[in-house]
User: What shape does this take?
Amino acid sequence: MRDAKLNSLADIIAHYRPISYQVSANGQLFEKELKPVSPYGFGRLHFTICFSVISAVSRYVAESPVRAPIQFIFDEQQGIDADVEMLFDEMIKSLPREAQKLIDGRPVFKSDKELQYAPLQAADLLAWHLRREHETGEKLVLTSRLMSGDAHIVQEIPDEMLRSWASHHATLPGVPLLRSKQQWKDFKATLKTLTDTGIYPSKIKGPGIYYPEGTSALARAIDWVRRRFRKA
Assistant: This one.
């Protein structure tokens, strides 16, 4: 049964011949150096990888001879979808205009257990095999079948970049206000309240007497997201 499922997923890749795009980062370094000094939402590797994929793929397609709209569909991860939804508009402002134009709506997060999203299962399986090969040094037979014969593009987030983010986070005075899960939850609720009333923290240059306490920290956080992925 398992082999039949694996073969069916490999057949999906063989039939559609997609370009596969691999983005990776040093997870141990992320957990050890970046996570402890980051806002709660930015301290999750899946969040960073999602935005890195959006940035890298849209830039790549924008520079390709054949361009087409890109719809980003990610596997469900608890809490990540809400964070991406909250910061998406600000994040893509750092992308070149041609790359922005190719993004077909906001990213969506779906369960790979739904039959119509079987390609997500194939992508998840490829990611598992690549990670396994990296961890063990063993070459797995199915890995090559899960990669498109047309192109497999690899991008690694350098350790130096992770360390530079960590150094930058450590200097931001607003980060301690956003480090715990509850603080992050409150941040998102406050941000929603502000944006629902037409106030956009990313445009705030300093605290105002009519803004809630901590608004300047929110402004810094949103602006940081934009700057962080400008060169991702």
Notes: The two ends are 40 Å apart (CA to CA).
